[in-house]
Amino acid sequence: MSIYQQLQQREDNNLPIKVGVIGAGQMGFGMIAQITQIPGMSVTGICDVNVKAASQARDYYNTKSGNTGSFIVSNDLKEVIQSTEVDVVVDATGVPEVGANIALEALRSKKHLVLLNVEVDITIGSVMHQMFTNAGLVYTGSAGDEPAATLELYEFAKTMGMEVLVAGKGKNNPFIPTANPHTCANEANQKNMSAHMLAAFQDGTKTMAEMNLLSNATGLVPDKVGMHGVEADVQNVADILNVKENGGVLNQFGIVDYVHGLAPGVFVIVKSDLEPVTEELRYLKVGKGPHYTFYRPYHLASLETPITIAKAVIQNASSIQPLGGPISETVTVAKRDINAGDKLDGIGGYSVRGVIETHQEMRRNGHIPIGMISGQIVAKKNIKSGQFLTLDDIELDPNTTVWKLRSLQDQLFPEPIFEYVK
Questions:
Q1: SS3 helix, strand, coil % of the chain, rounded to 5?
Q2: Residue 60 has what DSSP assignment?
Q3: Is pLDDT at 271 greater than 60 in this prediction?
Q4: Has this prediction a pTM greater than 0.90?
Q5: If DSSP codes are grouped into helix, strand and coil, which group holds residue 64?
């Protein structure tokens, strides 16, 4: 029985999946609106620091769904997560510290957790996934977000027996390393989105984090610090993302990367050593070979999240999760000159941006995961723009939940336990 049929069955039996949503911004509101059209699923609670935004989302939901039942609206995430009227929690905040508190509270309340918060997942995903699994609960990233959309193609290819050489996404925004909420304000207003979120897109942090999450779910790694980010289209991307001895830019295969020119799609580049298979691929006009690109020209972000909600509750399954310990990390780089004594803000702010590298590189160089830039962070000395930050440069805040959970993860997963297998 398909997920849709199972949802329809729940609708017929008046047993809807009851969803609590934390975060009523662009992503959260879009998902809430979509659920009004989905059988066997209902939103029963919304939390946002801006109670007005949460109330507006509730009112829209009730109007479009005809809901007249009880509904929790709050700025206290515990009130929604602990409710007996909530089966599954969706984190649509994008803030590591908030996400850490949501994850801990969902675990304590024995609720499945669906993440539209890549930022927290790349910071403490390994330990949280293990803890949720041990409790018989689902911890999962969301369908429609680029990591899970790419993973669908990756697993599609692997299930057919293909070797996946490269997996990645098209970058939606121009790469502006110094972008901040001020420089993004006008465009953000036009797009009705948070300036901090747009800054995280433009300065590259979001792309790095998304490919970090994909890396942790597949074992593929960045070919170099920050990835290549080439210009390409569907016809030539397999030629450009080839190894150097074949005329491409790569040092190795088994990598994640992003491409300017393929947005808003996701892709994998594959090969087969079987001539009948490659002949069939050429006949079916997948490409000229010897490498072939499978391309999905869209990802629907939060509109696909209900698929993951249904998988979690009905099938006890995830859309994307870490294989084990971190494979890659998104580490902290200064995007302006910082003076000793300055306080640093986090993702999408004025001070820092994220750059992907392998977990081994992070440990060897003492770099700091960007999700740890939470709470009261103070520079201990002058820091130059473009500098990778270490504990010699800044003081982290041990009072934050994300710091405590990351410390636990570092104890449990000192080294990655998975390597790329062809």
A1: 40, 20, 40
A2: H
A3: yes
A4: yes
A5: helix
